[in-house]
Structure formats: structure tokens, C-alpha cells
């Protein structure tokens, strides 16, 4: 296993990049700790596969270095980097048995047959493939084949890291859920460094200890599920993570108060200091933390109920506040559509953003 550092990394596929949009990866400094379980999360086209391929050596970065345990591997080809990679679709030998497929990476490196058997049986048991070991891979369903691909990725204990590029795409939803949990267990048992690429927040948050969130070629936050939920560092993290995402209200500021509608809320000193002459700021509040107040009070804002849906475990309500729509997940029904109410954004749950970056 290795600690992976990517100092001053950037990548443009086209020569002579000039504008930020010319880069598939904008300048970043990243470190992946030895033995960590990471997810790389972001929408399609944000640069996840490019970043993964730079680590494995399939793509050479146009700027910056790739360092494994202090050693510069930027110019080494994939086969010299000691990385295992699992792709979206199974990459296996159809004519071989499941056992031979799993054994292949070990035999290739000259392992003794008794050791090969022990390790293959161990990995097969973890992936619930033991009863298939003697079967030819060609006769198996696509999800069993993808489990073999996962097994081939995990079988070598000496790899610097195992990289997964949306590996559960071909797996049916129920098995997907089981395998995701299985991969987490396997990580705890094998202590391999894993990097798991996905555009699915549930997949990322259930698998990883740390999630690296990307958008438009940039890493906007690295954190635990809780940190990304409670303290999004960037507006993108706020609305991409969560169901529904964070309410983001671009509001004017006057005399130390921020105005989502007619009523102002006191702006915390750190947010005031970060304004730097700007007359506006974005309020970020998760639907889970919006409160419907029984009466007007300090820092409440006037709102109108736009819609209420009973979701069984909670009520999903939409309110109109000035020109904004505010979504709230509430325990009890907040009156009926069209009625006037008061909303409260608890100060300890309300975040502030300037130019998409969190300032308070
Ligand atoms: N070989 C290539 N040549 C030129 N541009 C590329 C190449 N590969 C990717 N790109 C561009 O780089 C950007 C990032 O692509 P990348 O595949 O890394 O994103 P991604 O987040 O993995 O997306 P997806 O989930 O759709 O695979 C995109 O704009 C893409 O069009």
C-alpha cells in the first residue's frame, strides 16, 4: 500500500491550454493516505476518470507530479506502478475457471501454488464466489463476472492502491447494495488503499471514509459523509449532496443584516468580514434544519406555504420567501398551501457563501 501525493497537478488534453475551461483537471494538490477508503464523487464529465487514470498511469498529467510513498512515478507506465484497476465492465478471461481468473495476477508474479490457493480461496469467500471457483467464467451472469473483476483487483496484497471506476454499473440494484457493504468490510479486513469513482452520492457515502467531491475539473471538498452534509465548503457540495440538496438563497445585505425576503437576519461577523464590499451573500440551509416558527420572533422571516407533501416519515414543504423557494423537511404539517407562516433558520445550521465558497 502507498501514500499517494499529487502535487501541483493539472491536466489539459489539448495542447497550449489558456483558459480554465481548457483543463479537464484544474490545478490541485491532493494526498491520499495509505490504507484509506476514498470515493471520488462528481457529475459526468467533471474529471473523475482523468484523475484515476493519472494515478494508474494510463494518462500522463500535463502539469505536476505523481508520487507514491515519496517516489516520483510520473513517468512510469501502468505496469510499473503496482496498481490494480477495476472498470465498469468485467475484464476477465472467459475461457478460464473462476479460480484461474483470480489466481492470474498472483501466478503472474511468481507466487507459489499453495499460497495462490490460500489467497484465492480467501478472496472468493469474501465475495461469495467459493461455489463458482471450478466453473468456467463464460457461463456466469454479468454480475458474477464483475465480482471476478473485483476479486482480481483485490487479490494482490502488495498493490499501491486499488482503483474502481464505477464498478457496480452492471450490477442489479439489490446486489449493488450488498456489494457496496461487502467492499467496505473487505477494506476493513484487507486494509488496502481504495479509490472508488462514482457519480452516485449514496454509493460514495456508504463506501468511503473520505469523499472527494469534484465539479468542472476541480476538487471542491474532501470530507466524511457528516462533514459534507453538515458543513459543505462549496455551494456545489450543498446542492449535490443531500436529498433534496441544500437551499441556497442569494440575498442582498444591508446594515449587517441579510434579506432573503422583506425580513432581515443578523449576519455573523465572519460573514460580514468576508463580504469585501460585495452587497450580496448566499445563505445555505439544509431542508432538514429549516424550522417553521409558531410566531414572528427574532430573526424569523415571513413566508407563504407553496406546497406540502406527506412522505410518511416526514412532511416535505415548499415555502415562498421573497423571490426564493425554500424547501423544508418537517416533522409536522406546517399549515396549508397559501397560508402565511414564519420560518427560522437556526444560526448554528445556517452557512454563508461568497463566490460559491463558504465564508461562515
Ligand atoms: N481522451 C480525451 N481527449 C480529450 N478530452 C477528453 C478525453 N477524455 C476525457 N476528456 C474530457 O475531459 C473532461 C473530463 O472527462 P472525464 O472522463 O475525466 O470525466 P468523468 O467525471 O470521469 O465523467 P464520466 O463519469 O462521464 O466518465 C470531459 O470534458 C471530457 O470530455
UniProtKB/TrEMBL annotation:
<dbReference type="InterPro" id="IPR012340">
    <property type="entry name" value="NA-bd_OB-fold"/>
</dbReference>
<dbReference type="InterPro" id="IPR003439">
    <property type="entry name" value="ABC_transporter-like_ATP-bd"/>
</dbReference>
<keyword id="KW-0472">Membrane</keyword>
<dbReference type="InterPro" id="IPR027417">
    <property type="entry name" value="P-loop_NTPase"/>
</dbReference>
<dbReference type="GO" id="GO:0005524">
    <property type="term" value="F:ATP binding"/>
</dbReference>
<protein>
    <submittedName>
        <fullName>ABC transporter ATP-binding protein</fullName>
    </submittedName>
</protein>
<dbReference type="InterPro" id="IPR008995">
    <property type="entry name" value="Mo/tungstate-bd_C_term_dom"/>
</dbReference>
<dbReference type="GO" id="GO:0055052">
    <property type="term" value="C:ATP-binding cassette (ABC) transporter complex, substrate-binding subunit-containing"/>
</dbReference>
<dbReference type="InterPro" id="IPR047641">
    <property type="entry name" value="ABC_transpr_MalK/UgpC-like"/>
</dbReference>
<dbReference type="InterPro" id="IPR015853">
    <property type="entry name" value="ABC_transpr_FbpC"/>
</dbReference>
<dbReference type="Pfam" id="PF08402">
    <property type="entry name" value="TOBE_2"/>
</dbReference>
<keyword id="KW-0067">ATP-binding</keyword>
<dbReference type="GO" id="GO:0015408">
    <property type="term" value="F:ABC-type ferric iron transporter activity"/>
</dbReference>
<keyword id="KW-1003">Cell membrane</keyword>
<keyword id="KW-0813">Transport</keyword>
<dbReference type="InterPro" id="IPR003593">
    <property type="entry name" value="AAA+_ATPase"/>
</dbReference>
<dbReference type="InterPro" id="IPR013611">
    <property type="entry name" value="Transp-assoc_OB_typ2"/>
</dbReference>
<feature type="domain" description="ABC transporter">
    <location>
        <begin position="4"/>
        <end position="241"/>
    </location>
</feature>
<dbReference type="GO" id="GO:0016887">
    <property type="term" value="F:ATP hydrolysis activity"/>
</dbReference>
<keyword id="KW-0547">Nucleotide-binding</keyword>
<dbReference type="Pfam" id="PF00005">
    <property type="entry name" value="ABC_tran"/>
</dbReference>
Amino acid at each position: 500500500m502507498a501514500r499517494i501525493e499529487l502535487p501541483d497537478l493539472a491536466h489539459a488534453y489539448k495542447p497550449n491550454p489558456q483558459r480554465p475551461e481548457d483543463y479537464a483537471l484544474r490545478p490541485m494538490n491532493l494526498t491520499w493516505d495509505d490504507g484509506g477508503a476514498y470515493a471520488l464523487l462528481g457529475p459526468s464529465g467533471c474529471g473523475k476518470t482523468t484523475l484515476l487514470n493519472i494515478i494508474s498511469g494510463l494518462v500522463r498529467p500535463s502539469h505536476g507530479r505523481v508520487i507514491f510513498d515519496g517516489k516520483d512515478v510520473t513517468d512510469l507506465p501502468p505496469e510499473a506502478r503496482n496498481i490494480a484497476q477495476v472498470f465498469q465492465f468485467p475484464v476477465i478471461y472467459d475461457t478460464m475457471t473462476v479460480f484461474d481468473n483470480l489466481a492470474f495476477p498472483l501466478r503472474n508474479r511468481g507466487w507459489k501454488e499453495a499460497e495462490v490457493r490460500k489467497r484465492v480461496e480467501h478472496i472468493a469467500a469474501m465475495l461469495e464466489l467459493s461455489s463458482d471457483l471450478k466453473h468456467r467464467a463464460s457461463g456466469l451472469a454479468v454480475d458474477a463476472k464483475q465480482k471476478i473483476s473485483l476479486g482480481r483487483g483485490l487479490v494482490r496484497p502488495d498493490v499501491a492502491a486499488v482503483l474502481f471506476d464505477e464498478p457496480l454499473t452492471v450490477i442489479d440494484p439489490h446486489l449493488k447494495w450488498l456489494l457496496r457493504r461487502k467492499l467496505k468490510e473487505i477494506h476493513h479486513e484487507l486494509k488496502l488503499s481504495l479509490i472508488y469513482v462514482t457519480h452516485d452520492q449514496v454509493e460514495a457515502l456508504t463506501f468511503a471514509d473520505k469523499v472527494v467531491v469534484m465539479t468542472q475539473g476541480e476538487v471542491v471538498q474532501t470530507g466524511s459523509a457528516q462533514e459534507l452534509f453538515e458543513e459543505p465548503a462549496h455551494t456545489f457540495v450543498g446542492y449535490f449532496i443531500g436529498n433534496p440538496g441544500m437551499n441556497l438563497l442569494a440575498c442582498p445585505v444591508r446594515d449587517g443584516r441579510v434579506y432573503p425576503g422583506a425580513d432581515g437576519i443578523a449576519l455573523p461577523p465572519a460573514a460580514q468580514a468576508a463580504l469585501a464590499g460585495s452587497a450580496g451573500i448566499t445563505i445555505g440551509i439544509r431542508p432538514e434544519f429549516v424550522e417553521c416558527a409558531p410566531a414572528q420572533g427574532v430573526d424569523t422571516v415571513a413566508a407563504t406555504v407553496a406546497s406540502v407533501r406527506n412522505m410518511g416519515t416526514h412532511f416535505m414543504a415548499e415555502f415562498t420567501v421573497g423571490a426564493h423557494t425554500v424547501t423544508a423537511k418537517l416533522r409536522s404539517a406546517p399549515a396549508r398551501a397559501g397560508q402565511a407562516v414564519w420560518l427560522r433558520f437556526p444560526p448554528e445550521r445556517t452557512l454563508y457563501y461568497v463566490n460559491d465558497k463558504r465564508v461562515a
